[in-house]
Amino acid sequence: xxxxxxxxxxxxxxxxxxxxxxxxxxxxxxxxxxxxxxxxxxxxxxxxxxxxxxxxxxxxxxxxxxxxxxxxxxxxxxxxxxxxxxxxxxxxxxxxxxxxxxxxxxxx
Amino acid sequence: xxxxxxxxxxxxxxxxxxxxxxxxxxxxxxxxxxxxxxxxxxxxxxxxxxxxxxxxxxxxxxxxxxxxxxxxxxxxxxxxxxxxxxxxxxxxxxxxxxxxxxxxxxxxxxxxxxxxxxxxxxxxxxxxxxxxxxxxxxxxxxxxxxxxxxxxxxxxxxxxxxxxxxxxxxxxxxxxxxxxxxxxxxxxxxxxxxxxxxxxxxxxxxxxxxxxxxxxxxxxxxxxxxxxxxxxxxxxxxxxxxxxxxxxxxxxxxxxxxxxxxxxxxxxxxxxxxxxxxxxxxxxxxxxxxxxxxxxxxxxxxxxxxxxxxxxxxxxxxxxxxxxxxxxxxxxxxxxxxxxxxxxxxxxxxxxxxxxxxxxxxxxxxxxxxxxxxxxxxxxxxxxxxxxxxxxxxxxxxxxxxxxxxxxxxxxxxxxxxxxxxxxxxxxxxxxxxxxxxxxxxxxxxxxxxxxxxxxxxxxxxxxxxxxxxxxxxxxxxxxxxxxxxxxxxxxxxxxxxxxxxxxxxxxxxxx
Lengths: 108, 512
Prior knowledge:
The complex is a heterodimer of chains A (108) and B (512).
Chain A: E1 8-12, E2 15-19, H1 23-27, E3 38-40, E4 45-50, E5 57-58, E6 63-69, E7 72-77, E8 82-87, E9 94-95, E10 100-106
Antiparallel strand pairs in A: 1-2, 3-10, 4-6, 4-9, 5-8, 6-7, 8-10
Chain B: H1 2-29, H2 35-42, E1 49-51, E2 74-81, E3 84-91, H3 102-118, E4 122-126, H4 137-153, E5 159-163, E6 166-168, H5 173-177, E7 180-184, E8 189-191, H6 195-202, H7 208-212, H8 214-221, E9 226-228, H9 231-244, H10 267-270, H11 281-288, E10 295-297, E11 305-312, E12 315-322, H12 333-348, E13 353-359, H13 366-370, H14 373-386, E14 391-400, H15 401-406, E15 416-419, E16 424-426, H16 430-437, H17 439-444, H18 448-463, H19 467-471, E17 477-478, H20 484-494
Parallel strand pairs in B: 3-4, 4-5, 5-7, 6-8, 7-9, 12-13, 13-14, 14-15, 14-16, 15-17
Antiparallel strand pairs in B: 1-2, 2-3, 10-11, 11-12
């Protein structure tokens, strides 16, 4: 169980060092700013009920659907004012964590 | 008359001993040794004495009255390792899955109390399916009483956990509270919630091995301090560790006959000329310490910092060193945790600290900041500042910014600080510093690249050496790399009777 002995360039404050990387360092995901136009499942679960359909005008804070997980029915609210672009699930669907469920168009 | 009584106990004893045959069959099927074999292979031959052999389950509910659970599933006793007295217990997976009932727990807490009273290390071998469900809250009480003692004994006697089977749910917290955790490939499995629960709740599918196997614990989670391929290798590691640490916090580790380093190279020959080029800091350690014998702790977790035990003039020391070979030797969340806990162990058990510095700074990134690198990084500052054992620091090639302060600088109470002639001690590396200080000159120059190079060079000449720090008294001497052993030996000799007391308090509140 040894680390990969493959030297790479590693830049810190404008200085580049030759060194090796670790398995855990390789797992770090690049930070992605949050995309408010995509509503994702914050927990794996079951789509219990959908309140909206494509084309609906929606307000920030308006419930979009119910996601049931760990015996709790969670209302999921719109993060923005806008319009429903697409509903990618139907009620009764089992969804994975981070799966995109609804796409929105943001009002500008 | 006397014979009659002997016969009675002989019969009772053979009942218990008979049960070991069942243990052997069951454990062998899983590629594991029995608890008795494990104990006998760790301790000196013939030194193990078993206590509480006739203890049986405390509960008679839910069919437990009809079961014979020999020793209630745990062997406890006292023995010696290389002549050092120890208390030891080993759970028996062949008895009700090694499940922890009240009597089982009471046997463990009794032997732990012995260890504390007698001032000797306690070694626990974990191989258990978890709480004994039939015993309900009494089983949980048993765990709680073990955790309480682990915490009370922390920093009083060394505590060692060897995970040789499953160790799941609440059971993992006893090892987590102890000083050193040993795991063996394909045998050790540790987790709070198992694959089944994770699948149901989160929909994530993972095997037990990938979730909490030995490699994961040693490399990713950092719960284990020593990783071995086999049980035999693990036992050798345990024995070696025991020789390096003292019996308790009132003693020093037993000295060994002094020996010179075994390696046949010079430190000055293995340091690359180009400061960007890495080297393995363990080669430097081996060139400094007695017999080149270095027992590395947490070898696979956060290898950008190296920690471990060695001897100088026969006396145990603890070493903390930046490792330029991995992530350029930066400090980050994991390496800070790793180093800080080790420093606190050494301080608690009177083991002097040698710090070898070659650090470009802390690891930048969103991941690090959001993981709390501020509070994790603060642990190193806390641990070094709090430590009152002799603290000796050698700055090898570079010590930039917060990394310079954190790595046992004079300012955190180091007793002796040395620097090699090529050491750069500054707020940051020359490139970064020149780009900031001379930003305007570089931007307004007709030839920016040329000006930048010139300014970097100026900065290197002014700051890329240890003389500014030396002229302020922050380092005591500039020494040749090959003189390092000589200076460290002298510093250890001079500080032999160091007896510094902290301020009176109940306890500090270190950043967790």
